[in-house]
Amino acid sequence: MDQRTAVTAASTKLTMGKAINSGLRAAMERDPKVIVMGEDVGKMGGVYRITDGLQKDFGEHRVLDTPLAESGIVGTAVGLAVRGFRPVCEIQFEGFIFPAFDQINSQVAKLHYRTQGMLKVPLVIRVPFGGGVGAVEHHSESPESLFAHLPGIKVVSCSNPVDAYWMIQQAIECDDPVLFFEPKRRYHEKAEVDTEATPYPLFRSRVVREGSTATLAAYGPMVKTCLDAANAATEDGHELEVIDLRTLSPLDLDPVFESVRRTGHLVVVSEAPGEVSIASEIADRVQRECFYSLEAPVLKVTGFDTPYPPSKVEEEYLPDLDRVLDAVDRSLAW
Amino acid sequence: MSSPEQWTHPEPGGGPAATAAKPTPEQVIAGLRATNEGGAELVELLTPEGERVANPEFDQYVDDIGAEQLRGLYRDMVLVRRADREGNALQRQGQLGIWVPLLGQEAAQIGAGRALKPQDMVFPSYREHGVAWCRGVKPEQILATFRGTQHSDWDPVEHRFHPYTIVIGNQVLNATGYAMGQKFEGKVGNEPDAEATMVFFGDGATSQGDVHEGFVWAAVYDAPVVFYCQNNQWAISEPTERQSRLPLYQRARGYGFPGIRVDGNDVLACLAVSRWALEQCRSGNGPVLIEAFTYRMDAHTTSDDPTRYRLSDELEAWKLKDPIERVRVHLVRSGMAEQEFFDEVQLEADQLASELRAYCFNMPDPPAERIFSQVYAGGNPLLERQRDEYVQYLAGFEGGAH
Ligand SMILES: Cc1ncc(C[n+]2csc(CCOP(=O)(O)OP(=O)(O)O)c2C)c(N)n1
Ligand SMILES: [Mg+2]
């Protein structure tokens, strides 16, 4: 039986939000150098309650309600990391990470390289991202490609409570800086989390549904969309394989190559604008690695190449089950 | 006995170090939070009890405010509060995705808004529905942002009121650049068409790099910009002492321009101080920082639950300083308004609310094509193709192809 559904004594049903909270708590209990910092993360426990209760239990010196400045949050975290702490920064919404872009690109990503490896920057930047929550501007974007493009940082995204619980702890233990993208619209999805299971490695993608007709590759919020699409496709007699990429930098595409060699069809699904993106990178790598296995070009189902639209039309902007299945049909009919 | 003022006004060489970032219990008991005290330097013309107090420096800026004008300010505040409450209710009823209440900040916004001349330019953050009102933006036009039909729905050039800015602090630099442009084009001086810019931001925003850079740029280029900080004591769950040891208005000194703290719940004082600051700017003595000392009476937004982080005592203390009530008391006591006037305003407010409501219920959703329009002034063939393909894809559903 797969560990994601295993029910043992250490197993509890958790939402993704609560799973990240429990993962943070476990990491803080294990290592006194782990500290949490960000806007409203302390007394209030974060706008999504991901850090709920941590300040109460670990104190104000380990859970910091910082001044309102993202460059400040990340820039001081670099100094703390160099000093021996393992900071976990929260950026309240992905749209507000950009004041910190300079620190992320210039220091977080490069300090190790610049110092010939003499300095490490073991920090985590947690970023709720993605749309579908009916929010105002800057609360629904998917900027992960911008960060995956920066050599020197690692970028991951969880898609379910089990991964969320383990991946946040693994990211904190990682000696490299990790950007941790959390699909905010999936915070309330529930699953059984076994806290004594052996976790799957952090920088590895995995097949989450087996199939032979075509392959879907996705990450974060779109994994559920793809699983729903795969379920619906069985009505047409299609068995879609779904791969949760989990790690966006470095990409782990071996499971994708292996799958495409069997199915001959690949659809990459992401909410982010599709041009010059992680989805494009996957298409490029797959056509080089699996050229003779492909029976159709790699298709992308992504957000459009526009700013995130007003929320009343976001359902049209975001890839959904129908757009995914339409792409599968086009691929199969090629 | 040392006082909160001493802790927060560190004079060179004197007094204990400011420790607002980590107040001791003794300091807290002595009122370091000072949540309902603006301190000795607070400019106030109308007390919370509705008493007009003389101010030799600022009276001249409101000497034209007679009974009629004061009734006008009262009406403004009642109407924007009513529209605000209706916005809140519409969100609760599922008509809006979110609402950002201005409750408690009516005087700070109407005082500043009514000090502006038509030729002045305004850069709001996202809570400035009262300033919008003064710039001729109808409450209806604000709904689009919060209903999610458009990001922004008024003409910024026509109203000289920039779109709301949600990314904290961004607009402070944009406003400073606009003001530099006013200066470069010779619109600063003693001519009647001299211009100034006013930019709105919160206490939390004062920590952002953009805001500091705005202060630096404005000082270096003598930009005619009034930095109007509404210190409503909270940045979501974080009290102002998480952002500063020093009262915010005192920061201006470090950048080389004047800073002033005004009672943000006193519409007359806000009007006077704003008029003074705008005049300074128009005549070439800008920039100026105003800290309007006020209180966020409601949640941060409709998504927020303030009981998680603040005590209701604080709210109760601030209720006694209500910006509208003090004007009402003053109008009655000084015989400047009869009951009939208050009834009329109430009626008008109810009508405004019901119109706003009706408007909201009838707002159409934008078509899917809106996603692709106005991304570039010069168009982009890639997007045109994406749009055409998408429209064709949607048409497939109508034909029952899917
Ligand atoms: C750059 C950025 N970071 C974080 C946020 C999330 N956020 C929205 S409002 C707010 C608090 C702002 O407080 P303040 O400046 O005092 O303004 P107020 O809301 O009290 O009017 C925060 C942290 C944001 N909008 N932009
Ligand atoms: Mg505030």
UniProtKB/TrEMBL annotation, chain A:
The keyword Oxidoreductase applies. The keyword rRNA-binding does not apply. Residues 14-189 form the Transketolase-like pyrimidine-binding domain. Its cofactor is thiamine diphosphate. Keywords: Oxidoreductase, Thiamine pyrophosphate. This is Alpha-ketoacid dehydrogenase subunit beta. It comes from Kibdelosporangium persicum.
Automatic annotation (TrEMBL), chain B:
Its cofactor is thiamine diphosphate. InterPro entries: Alpha-ketoacid_DH_E1_comp, DH_E1, PdhA/BkdA, THDP-binding. Keywords: Oxidoreductase, Pyruvate, Thiamine pyrophosphate. It comes from the Bacteria. Residues 1-23 are annotated as: Disordered. PANTHER family: 2-OXOISOVALERATE DEHYDROGENASE SUBUNIT ALPHA, MITOCHONDRIAL. This is Pyruvate/2-oxoglutarate dehydrogenase complex, dehydrogenase component alpha subunit. It comes from Kibdelosporangium persicum.
